[in-house]
Amino acid sequence: METGSKNFIEQIIDKDLAEGVYDHVCTRFPPEPNGYLHIGHAKAVLLNYGLAKEYGGQFNMRFDDTNPTKERSEFVESIKEDIRWLGADWGDHLYFASNYFPQMYEAAVKLIRKGKAYVCDLTAEEIREYRGTLTEPGKESPYRNRSVEENLDLFERMKNGEFPDGSRVLRAKIDMASPNINMRDPVIYRVAHMSHQNTGDNWCIYPMYDFAHPIEDAIEGVTHSICTLEFEDHRPLYDWVVRELEYPHPPKQIEFAKLYLTNVVTGKRYIKKLVEEGAVDGWDDPRLVSIAALRRRGFTPESIQRFVELCGVSKAQSSVDYAMLEYCIREDLKLKRSRVMAVLRPVKLIIDNYPEGQVEELTVPNNTENESLGSRTVPFSRELYIEREDFMEEPPKKYFRMFPGNEVRLMNAYFVKCTGCEKDEQGNVTVVHGTYDPASKGGNSPDGRKVKGTIHWVSAAQAVKAECRLYENLIDESKGVYNEDGSMNLNPNSLTVLKECYVEPGLQGAGAYDSFQFVRNGFFCVDARDSRPEALVFNRIVSLKSSFRLPAAKADGRS
Fold first, then answer.
1. Cα torsion at 292, 294, 298, 301 (round to 10°)?
2. What are phi and psi of 217, to 5 degrees?
3. Has this prediction a pTM greater than 0.90?
4. In whole angstroms, what is the distance from residue 392 CA to residue 432 CA?
5. CA within 13 Å, CB half, 349
6. What pLDDT sits at residue 2?
7. Is 64 within any annotated ligand binding site?
């Protein structure tokens, strides 16, 4: 790869290696286990793992589990599963920040001994008042000039559980007049008598993220600590911590722009709210863009890898059209999956001149664009299911499907002419009738006559009943994601459940995550949670067509 085509992070790494700042590369992905990962995290995972792989370096998987108020073992396990699925391999390098609590405590003691940290008795509200504003400097805490001995004694007593929650904190002593508010004596330890998902009840004081994170990176030998832009203003504190603690090879923090999708809920706290309020059926609800939800819906690791690649890496914040993610899954599946027939809104078609009781096995290609996928046999009989929308008694102009007197092609089978229909007392069509041309087997007429309409079907007697779930955006795109009061504009039609669908009998054995292209209806995946061999459930991954077009530069491989 030429230097000119490298992103700005690669250029920084190249410079560091050339100048001997580091002689290797070590990156990490450090999620807090307080929720499931989403599509934005996928970019961070693949970026960090990709850089380590590109430079022959090391990739660390580390849980930043320093906040027991929100963290759960469930989230730890889901994150590990998601990252493995995305294709990032941490090997033997799985770490927990909580395992470094002894080193972090000693680091805090070291700062106290250097006169760089003190125990403060101000309340959280008072600390905020003393901090100042963007235009006014803060003022010093009345406890800022405690002696080293007193601070050591108080901090040890904090550790030993002598003080209630919120009564005391440990603060770094930096500069209350700093233009960067993060440097105005930030809190680095707090009292919290809570059980931790990894360390149990061993600790009742916990380090703050901005103090813990640089220590974790330094302990693990991370060279390039890559994070998103909201941490740019925290970088001076990151550098202060590693400098004051005198680590011999301090890591370097580099920030890049987050991945934002248009009209999609990505923030963990918003997804959590949707889950807790029952607006979705869990963190893996296929309407969400958590990694678990995308996997359950039928997205592939390759499609997400391609999406992240197309998004690129930059310093500039921008939003990506959700349609690009859909484009990536279509491109990934279209040549890999069998194209099968499934009828989602069925009406029965009876071919009156077809022999009763006869069943033919027709050989059909699995994918007309990829012959290597081979072929399969599909049963054909007198009674079929077709899509209800493929018949109209009084059609408009340019409607080429079934209506009385019109001839259509049954896909891979025969020409059939519609002769009429049956209706119930409410006037609803219950059965469509037609006659077939035995000489048109395979969908071609020996006399050369043409038909304009081709429709799919399944044989009624052998068809497998299934449930199909059709998804739209969870957000009402016409109104935007959030209202002024912070509530979300949810789309009431984000899920349509069709319980009377019929699929080819060959799909009977389909298992969790198996995916197919349902002819004319889209790409579908077997639901991993609710589907059973005796009661198949399919999730629509994406429709077949979109108005989205990839820019020429990206289509040519230039990001």
1. -90
2. -60, -45
3. yes
4. 10
5. 33
6. 44
7. yes
For residue 418, the Cα-to-chain-centroid distance in whole angstroms is 46
Q: Which of 21, 25, 76 is nearest to 49 (CA)?
A: 25
**Three-state SS at 476:** coil
Q: Tell me: is residue 228 an annotated ligand-binding position.
A: yes
Let me know: does 515 contact 307? Beta carbons within 8 Å.
no
Q: Is 209 annotated as a binding residue?
A: yes
- Encoded tokens for 164: 């209630």
- Identity (one letter) of the amino acid at 345? R
Which residue's entry shows tokens 């007309």?
368
The per-residue pLDDT for 555 is 55
- In percent, the amount of the chain with pLDDT more than 70 equals 97
Q: Is 33 annotated as a binding residue?
A: yes
* Rounded Cα–Cα distance for residues 537 and 465 (Å): 9
What tokens does 200 get?
């149990």
What CA–CA distance (Å, rounded) separates 180 from 235? 10
CA–CA gap between residue 146 and residue 53 (Å, rounded): 49
Residue 69 has φ and ψ, to the nearest 5°, of -70, -25
The contacts found for 239-246 with CB under 8 angstroms, 24 or more apart, are 239/214, 240/172, 240/174, 240/183, 241/172, 241/210, 241/211, 241/214, 241/215, 242/214, 242/215, 242/217, 242/218, 244/111, 244/114, 244/116, 245/107, 245/110, 245/111, 245/215, 245/218
407 phi/psi in degrees, rounded to 5: -110, 135
Is 39 part of any known ligand binding site? yes
Q: Which two tokens stand for residue 165?
A: 């929650």
- Residues 366/338, Cβ–Cβ less than 8 Å: yes
CA distance 34 to 341: 42
Q: Is 34 annotated as a binding residue?
A: yes
Extract the residue ranges of the chain whose pLDDT is less than 50. Answer: 1-3, 558-559
Annotate 437-450 with DSSP letters as a single string: EGGGTTT--TT---
Q: Helices 301-311 and 39-54, interaxial angle, to 10°?
A: 80
- Is 44 annotated as a binding-site member? yes
Cα angle, residue 183 at apex, residues 178 and 189 outer, rounded to 5°: 150
